[in-house]
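R.M. (postdoc): so does anyone remember the format we settled on? I'll just put the structure tokens first.
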């Protein structure tokens, strides 16, 4: 299991040609913790950001991601539901609240199992100084609801 921040910026290689087709810029997932895929930033004027479904990834490595075929990249409009960390539906930086009204901090990152395609947990920050003195919090993956102002997690932790 790894955090998405360690994967952000990794190059994406096409196995058939060995060419770099872009780099990972965001992760897409559901509120129940299922990874849908990734947003890949590529060079060029048109279609700079494309959606790469999880099933198209052959391998996650420390130095890059390998896909079977670049033709698996889709337009972002093909992603109808779900959330991401940083893009249009990005939820990073939103306050995380429990159903009993307790603020846990701000969502900063996700832990995920690449091969299983699931979110294993969420990294919560309470701010720079709290992170230095106490460290960041890790919350297990639980279903959540995203509102305009906050993320509500279905737990009483």
């Amino acid at each position: 299991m790894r955090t998405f921040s360690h994967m952000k910026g990794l190059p994406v290689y096409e196995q058939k040609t060995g060419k770099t087709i872009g780099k990972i810029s965001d992760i897409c997932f559901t509120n129940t913790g299922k990874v849908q895929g990734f947003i890949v930033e590529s060079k060029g004027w048109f279609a700079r950001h494309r959606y790469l479904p999880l099933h198209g990834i052959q391998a996650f490595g420390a130095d890059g991601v390998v896909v079977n075929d670049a033709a698996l990249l889709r337009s972002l409009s093909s992603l109808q539901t779900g959330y991401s960390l940083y893009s249009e539906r990005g939820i990073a930086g939103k306050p995380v609240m429990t159903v009993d009204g307790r603020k846990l901090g701000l969502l900063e990152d996700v832990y995920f199992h690449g091969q299983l395609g699931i979110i294993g947990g969420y990294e919560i920050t309470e701010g720079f100084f709290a992170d230095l003195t106490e460290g960041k919090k890790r919350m297990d993956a639980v279903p959540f609801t995203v509102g305009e102002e906050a993320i509500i997690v279905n737990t009483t932790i």
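R.M.: ...and that's the designed sequence above, right after the tokens. Also worth knowing: The chain is about 5% helix and 45% strand. The helical segments are 128-134.
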